[in-house]
Write a structure and sequence with these properties.
single chain; 214 residues; Ubiquitin-like (UB roll); DNA polymerase, domain 1; five-stranded mixed β-sheet; 7 helices
Length: 214
């Protein structure tokens, strides 16, 4: 007798088994993905928050003075000072470079001391005084270090310049601008990919030797 399987029609048992197998694999993959997904991500998905896992974290109230202006903010515990300055206060002069504390583009002053704002949590700055590049000038009157950078052409593309200037001011205030070698050492945390280092050193030396208040 001729085997009935030789006359199997499309959509019959073999194809049905293939569909079942594909469905099983899809379901298994989905279950595995869910099992490996962090709880916060799952919770965010349940809230229908598209790729905004940060919304899961409870925000905290903080107060800080930025460039002489008092601010009361609500921030996520993991938000960096850099992101708060740029995204909540719209102070975009402070640049996000490497975001790992290696380039110095994000340098600001916290209570007079220079810090990498990309490595500083916003909650750590609560109750403190922050100065960014926008806070150095007095109206239309540039800070002496800003004028010196212009005079000595201490920048090319300008991306690192805000951080360079903030570090340069701190370098003098800290008493580390007594020689070219010392300046280079204490400015080494700020990278200039355009290579304007000699001009930056000249600008710092002029301000230091001029005895201007920084």
């Amino acid at each position: 007798m001729e085997d009935e399987r030789d006359h199997a029609l499309p959509g019959s048992e073999p194809e049905a088994k293939d569909n079942s197998r594909r469905n099983f694999l899809k379901q298994s993959t989905l279950l595995t993905a869910i099992a490996l997904t962090p709880g916060t991500a799952v919770k965010a998905a349940e809230m229908h928050v598209d790729e905004k896992i940060a919304a899961v974290f409870e925000k905290m109230p903080i107060k800080m003075e930025v460039n002489g202006v008092a601010h009361s903010l609500s921030v996520e515990p993991r938000a960096t000072l850099l992101d708060i300055l740029r995204e909540q206060l719209d102070l975009t002069g402070t640049k996000k470079g490497c975001d790992h504390g290696q380039c110095g583009a994000c340098t600001v002053h916290v209570d007079g001391h220079r810090v990498n704002s990309c490595l500083t949590l916003g909650v750590m700055a609560s109750g403190k005084k922050i100065t960014t590049i926008e806070g150095l000038a007095k109206g239309d009157e540039l800070h002496p270090m800003q004028e010196a950078f212009l005079k000595h052409d201490g920048f090319q593309c300008g991306y690192c310049t805000p951080g360079q200037i903030m570090s340069a001011v701190a370098c003098i205030r800290e008493g580390h601008a007594n020689s070219e070698m010392e300046i280079r050492e204490y400015m080494s945390g700020n990278i200039c990919r355009c290579g304007a280092y000699p001009n930056i050193v000249n600008a710092i030396q002029e301000v230091k030797e001029g005895g201007q208040a920084v």
